[in-house]
């Protein structure tokens, strides 16, 4: 394999792209996913269109964002930073889509079920 076809750490880019295509974007009826436009260390970005306005948007999906404490912290940090950016070359946050998984099915970063609401 040519050097240009290798990703970070020497792994093939084709494998990285195949993994990205396995990510399911459940965006409900508000958005129409167009195509995958990029992958990163822990997320996949797809171009999409908001159905009611036709506005072009990018949607980032972070699979299993809360399975590992480090990933949860990175996600929160990224959201906090992007909330304050106002620049033509940086996409701002328009919306945050929450998973449709019932609260009781969430797991803590250590793998155990999340305690019920109000539990102390």
Which CATH class of the domain at 21-90 applies here? Alpha Beta
Report the C-alpha radius of gyration, rounded: 17 Å
CATH topology of the domain at 21-90: Phosphorylase Kinase, domain 1
First CA to last CA: what distance?
Answer: 55 Å
Write the element-wise H/E pattern from the N-terminal end onward: HEEEH
| Mass-distribution shape | globular
Q: Report strand %.
A: 15-25%
Query: Given the structure, what is the number of helices?
Result: 2
Structural class: alpha+beta
Number of strands: 3
Question: Mean pLDDT, rounded to whole units?
Answer: 73
Instruction: Provide the CATH superfamily of the domain at 21-90.
Output: Phosphorylase Kinase, domain 1
Helix content: 10-25%
CATH architecture of the domain at 21-90: 2-Layer Sandwich
Protein name: Protein kinase domain-containing protein
Domain Protein kinase: 31-120
Binding site for ATP: 61
GO molecular function: ATP binding; protein kinase activity
